[in-house]
Design a protein that fits this description.
The protein is of the alpha+beta class and 121 residues long. The chain contains five helices and four strands, in the order βαβββαααα. Helices cover 41% and strands 17% of the residues.
Length: 121
């Protein structure tokens, strides 16, 4: 994997096991997707586990892609918000712009990422 020189590697726990690499052993950032247990982000050798954003689960199609997009836009918290927003309805593309959802959000965690979403539409 190091030969590819990725900047970030995403995978669920089973995928990390198959590859046979510990997320913390990479020079790249690593994201371990753990479903209902949230995700673990390894950046600069520091592991941070982030819980899921509570809400309805309607359709998990696209959740991993939304998590990755959110991570690239605003880091771990935005990743979790984007994934939660994605799975709250049928289909992978939310019908509202993410910042609209954040403005209407009830979780204090959403407040932290609202400014990031506004700077990076």
């Amino acid at each position: 994997m190091e030969k590819l020189e990725p900047s970030v590697v995403f995978g669920n726990e089973r995928e990390w096991d198959v590859v046979g690499v510990s997320p913390g052993s990479l020079s790249a950032e690593a994201v371990v997707k753990r479903g209902t247990l949230g995700s673990t982000f390894v950046v600069g050798g520091v592991r941070t586990s982030v819980e899921i954003v509570p809400g309805p689960v309607v359709d998990v199609t696209g959740a991993g892609d939304a998590l990755a997009a959110g991570y690239f836009v605003g880091g771990p918290k935005m990743a979790m918000v984007a994934a939660a927003r994605c799975i709250s309805q049928t289909g992978a593309q939310p019908d509202l712009h993410l910042t609209s959802a954040l403005d209407a959000g009830s979780s204090g965690m959403l407040t932290d990422v609202t400014s990031v979403a506004r700077r990076n539409p």
